[in-house]
Amino acid sequence: MGCKRKAKRILQTAERLFASGRFHEVTLDQICQEAGVGKGTIYRYFDDKEDLYFQVILTGLDELVESMRQVREQVDDPGEGLRKAACRVVEFYRKRHALFRLMHTEQIRGSDRKGQMWQKWHTRHQAMLDVFADFVRMGIESERYTARLSPEAIARLIGGMLRSGLRNEDEMPGGDEWPAVVVELLESGLLPRENGETS
Fold this sequence. Notes:
With about 200 residues, the chain is an all-alpha fold.
């Protein structure tokens, strides 16, 4: 098995185990056994259990950011881009529900590395929001949208609505359609009024 494949297997196993129990309840021995690797192999790629925990989250976020950047490169229409990017976010967290749970826990509060980890998390989260902001900016520049808030602020609103929807998805109507509906609701406030007024 290649090095990258081993590391990926360890990360996938760790993600599932960390999400199914508390951080202190999951042992490296358990991860080794279920991933089919020796403890020395884990230490070849990760400093310790805490580092592995952080890398699970960061690696997942990297995948999401790359997926959203692909949307930005492939879509020229701002509305379509916002909807597709929103759907990518929701699809990712549905598929990687374990990762979503990990990111919204504080199981290792007080870690000396937590500040470093959350700085890296913030960088990736910002990259995700930048994709939404770019599509909003595109709409404003093309005079399709008019907005009293900055593209960055609007991107944060989209991100917040998607997080709320994911946390309460069983209450969201429309099945797979709700992420696009979230964007359409916000987009309706960005569209210029028929009489041309923006206030």
